[in-house]
Amino acid sequence: MPKKAGNAEAPAAPNKGRGALSREQLVVQALALLQDSGLAELSTRRLAERLDVKSPALYWHVRNKDELLQLVADAICARMRLPGEDRPFRARLETIAHEYRRILITHRDAARLFAEQPPTGPHRMKLYDVAIGAFRNAGLPLAEAVAMATFYRHYLLGMVTEEVRGQWHDTTASPFPPFALGVELQRMGHAPHDCPHLAEASDLLTHMEPEKLFAMGLKVLLDGVDCRVAALANCQEP
Prior knowledge:
Blueprint: H1 23-37, H2 44-51, H3 55-58, H4 65-77, H5 89-106, H6 110-116, H7 122-138, H8 142-164, H9 177-188, H10 196-200, H11 202-207, H12 210-233
Helix pairs in contact: 1-2, 1-4, 4-7, 5-7, 5-8, 6-8, 7-8, 8-12
């Protein structure tokens, strides 16, 4: 059976009729539908059935399915605990990264939803703003801070997408890609192949925990920011 998030709120009972339906109820029930059935089943038709209303009643609150999905993504993002600006920039970025991973793992198909929908909505925009602010506080000029915030988002989203691949499906879940690669390399044994570095890492790949791999990549990314900041401080262009 699909996993259920431990901290998911119980959805409010839908009210019948267009006049009783609110946008907040619509989003709560859309989140519940996402958690129960996945992104592929999150449609205005299915949501209307869940709310026990006719589909046209939804369009008093959302223009189309894309707007609905953007509202759902923003509602998920609202559950992040963002760090205060009084903390060092690196600590802020580490906190954001682990919070981002937490909410994407907790909510079914959230990683795919975040990848497919632009980071609009007040909470997703605030998240982007906080990330840019952290890179700015580190000492990066605005253009580089925006570029780094974008790269940082892509790193986080890509890593979590790989981690959660298949975990919400009833069928046998696809294994974590590094693990699957390690198993294949071990199966090959000492057979000749053109991947000597991967072969050397096969045991590491089969034992690497996703969270540890995520943190390791994040450290390398932020170490690079430290080096760039030091170069700028010394007026040295790479």
